Automatic annotation (TrEMBL):
Superkingdom of origin organism: Bacteria
A Pfam family this chain is assigned to: RecX_HTH3
Provenance organism: Pseudoalteromonas rhizosphaerae
Listed name of the protein: Regulatory protein RecX
Family: Belongs to the RecX family.
Amino acid sequence: MDEALQKKLKNYVLWLLGRQEYSRRELTQKLQQKEATPEFIEALLDWCEEHNFINEQRYVEGFVRRHIAKKHGLKRIQSEAMGKRIDRALLESVIESFEIDWFGLAQDAYLKKYSNSQDDFDHKEKAKRVRYLMYRGFSYEQIDFAMQAQ
């Protein structure tokens, strides 16, 4: 690789990181698409970590915060994290450090969706609401709590 291409790829990575957080794996994929050599990718990402442009802890914290803001439950967060190949131990430690009230979050998600609807509903409507909260990643206990609280 010539020096001009290396500088261009370095600027590309810095531009990406200026817009949002990326994991090391995501940046590796983006650089591979630009046909960078594995040695250059490794050296560039090591340099980014040394200068704290890439930080896996910070990335995971932002990831969890975004999902909590979307009112997603633990199962949904874990599933999405597996898709992004986030380290499970790191994810669990971040989730524990946030001390999230999953029951309250389930209730908030339920009320946001169904606060303007009728309180008495049939079995079919109840199943629909349960499926909605399950898709969002909540457990049966959390769903039951959210539906009782209305």
